[in-house]
User: Fold this.
Amino acid sequence: MSKNNPFILVILASVLSWYGCGDDNSKQDKMVEPTKTNGNELRVGVMPTMDCLPIYLLVDSAMYDTTMVKITLKEFSAQMDCDTALIGGSVHGSVTDLLRVENMRKKGVPLKSVTSTDLHWQLIASKKARLNELSQFGDKMVAMTRFSATDYLTDRAIKKGKPKNPVYKVQINDVGIRHHMMLNNELDAAWMPEPYATSVRMQGNNVVSDTRKDSIELGAVAFRVVALADDVKFKQVEEFLKAYDKAIDEINKKGIKYYSNLIKKYMGVGDDVVAKLPNMKYNNVREPNEQSYGKRL
Assistant:
């Protein structure tokens, strides 16, 4: 990666023109922007998942200009809580997915996806359910979250598998609860991100679908447009993305196992799970393809 990733400038440069064409929703959003008790602070929502490892690293190692910005992480275990924070303005940006971004925009919250992330899901079936094919999912329960990538992926799997009977989509938003229920055989199947997918696989459960194999990339980091329209915050987000790139280069150079302490600290898994994690390579800052799912159902 070059010192100045050109995609960072291209992605952020599009914000001001997009904001300038905003409607009344953007004006309404500006009204609910929280009082800036610390203009140097950039608040970012994160999840305890492997796609957030570069963000955890850039903050723990202070890979950014601390005189320009103080990056504060707000940790959530349910993506809907990240959404609530974005909608309410208690964070300036957050990890999310493209379908959630679209849904929040429909609710009148202008957002800009500044980069894709390496968020992937596996549809893992309980070993007790004995599910090996998508066609066998009739009358089974699949844990997911409404209006999200996992909702979309469930519909996609149902259409692909064409089970004879209905599939029951069960909304379980907290990734920790979903993980616990799978380990205790309380679900037929669930969409799991890493490192929890590895933990569930280690118990002998079966992977039925994998977004990485299907080249589906729906993870993103999104910021409130009203925050990006502020000159100071704009520069802080630019600094965040530069540090994000730097963290990715470090992880790709040293490997994820080198950062086992960070994984255990923020994701709550043990050495046994970290040892079994698959090799992962992260992509640098790149503009998300917000039409990638489109009519692919």
In short: The mean pLDDT is 89.
